[in-house]
Write a structure and sequence with these properties.
- By secondary structure, the chain is of the alpha+beta class.
- The protein has a single domain, classed as Porin (Beta Barrel).
- It is 16% helix and 64% strand.
- It has two helices and eight strands; from the N terminus they run H-E-E-E-E-E-H-E-E-E.
- The chain has an eight-stranded antiparallel beta barrel.
- A hairpin with a 6-residue loop joins strand 1 and strand 2.
- The chain starts with a helix and ends with a strand.
Amino acid sequence: MKSIQTIILGLIMFSFCSAHAAGGTDVGVLFGMKNATFKDDSTAGTDFKTKTGFMGGVVAIGEMGGMLFRTGAYYASRATEIKTTPNLELTIATIDVPVTLMYSFNDMLSMFGGAVFALKVSDDCTGDATICNTVSDDIESFHTAATIGLNAKFHPNWSGEVSYEYGLSDIAKDTSMSSISLGAIFIY
């Protein structure tokens, strides 16, 4: 399964590089914060407290086949506090690859939607070592989400954006996740 995921991510990045090489593609740096909400889908009723993580990487927006296509790759951390005795702090780091279509209302405001593919890079759990080991073992190495967002350009090279992600696959055993991101993009 991991090799299939790697192939998919490789094809997406190849498409990204091909679009940039063909010209007409804006490439920039994305940075911001991500607020993830974890939800227990089992009957155990684990309680999670939302924490803020961060994100940073590259993004590309270009025309492909008469439509705007938005992709990239960025590091994202999603954090939560798991309310147990004792409480645990969990941070999951991923490389996110968004694959979205973008619609521009005008020169300043755009909307985008599509999918985000996330490949786990690491996880960090602090608290009871036994519980942390169990939690770390349950975290999936790959997950997907649907995303929708708005991008507002406030300078020729700068834009801000807000987006919402809804998990299409569990991020851990019996645990789903959604997140709200707020970021800025510098196009060079």
